[in-house]
Amino acid sequence: MTLASAFKTILLSAACALAGVAGHAADLTVGANIGNVPWEFESADGKVVGFEVDLVNEIGKRLGKSVEFVNTPFNGLFSAVQSGRINIGISSITITDKRLESVAFAQPYYDSDQSLTVAAASGIEGLSQMEGKTIGVDTGSTGDMWVDKNKADYKFGEVRRFEGLSPAMLDLAAGRIDGYVSDIPALLYYVKDKPDLKVVERIPTGEKYSMMFNKGDPLAAEVNAVITTLKGEGFIAKLHETWFGAKAEDATSTVAVFDMPASK
Question: How many CA atoms lie within 13 A of 33 on its CB side?
């Protein structure tokens, strides 16, 4: 075999391998901001795990569809869903009226608020002590929106935007930001074994998390029906105990069945 022939054989083999992979693409492509603990993150052995990962995998199983997770920055999830690059967006995404103008959501499965996290040694005990301080948020998140709306009232200093919790926590620990505003469940989970960091204030916002879909996609209603079934079976409540070590209250969206949010 000549070198040219060998090279052609290698190219052909590679093409066949790629064709085989393409032929076995997952039925559902799920965009997730990997690193968003405890919702979707990488375990020590490199597997994608988390509350929402377990939930999506179970929904895929009930629908008879395979699932593939694609790491996507939070702010990129919205355009990825709208363009059809992903079928479902997850990452503790809050349902808002504004978002319902351009995307669809299944019913919620988790109730949340925002929070302020600081370095334990900073002496900061709440938002009232953040005047002139540098504050971190996740780009395009509800925390970002809350800080923008309330910046003048609290006289925050510079606002720095991050693509996820991990880089923000690195800057907080290093003193490059003074506080970080983000979803309270993720922060409580993150700091529980990190005594140098502290969640000092809950910021009531009444947020509810769900899965996001392209507007008009019938998949949203299919997933919504499965979520209703899983709530009835206590599956999502069990996930709550697994990931947060606490029982979900009956009135929360983790347990109670809600209507699918109406498009705006």
Answer: 25
Question: If we measure between CA atoms, which residue out of 123, 45, 57 comes closest to residue 90?
Answer: 57
CATH number of the 112-206 domain: 3.40.190.10
**Residues 73-103 pLDDT 10s:** 999 999 999 999 999 999 999 999 999 999 9
| Phi and psi angles of residue 213, each rounded to the nearest 5 degrees, phi first | -135, 165
Say how many CA atoms lie within 13 Å of 61 toward its Cβ. Answer: 8
Domain with CATH 3.40.190.10 in the chain: 13-111+208-244, 112-206
* Contacts of residue 117, Cβ cutoff 8 Å, sequence gap at least 6: 172, 179, 180, 181, 182, 187, 191, 197, 198, 199, 200
Residues 131, 158: Cα–Cα separation, whole Å? 10
Q: State both tokens at 234.
A: 């206590």
Q: Which of 190, 199, 137, 143 is nearest to 168 (CA)?
A: 137
Query: Could you give the CA distance from residue 257 to residue 199 in angstroms, rounded to a whole number?
Result: 30
Q: Give the domain 13-111+208-244 fold.
A: D-Maltodextrin-Binding Protein; domain 2 (3.40.190)
What is the Rg, in whole angstroms, of the alpha carbon atoms belonging to the chain?
21
* Cα of 233 vs its chain's centroid, Å: 24
Q: Is the pTM of this model over 0.85?
A: no
Distance CA 4, CA 19 (A): 22
pLDDT given for residue 5 in this prediction = 41
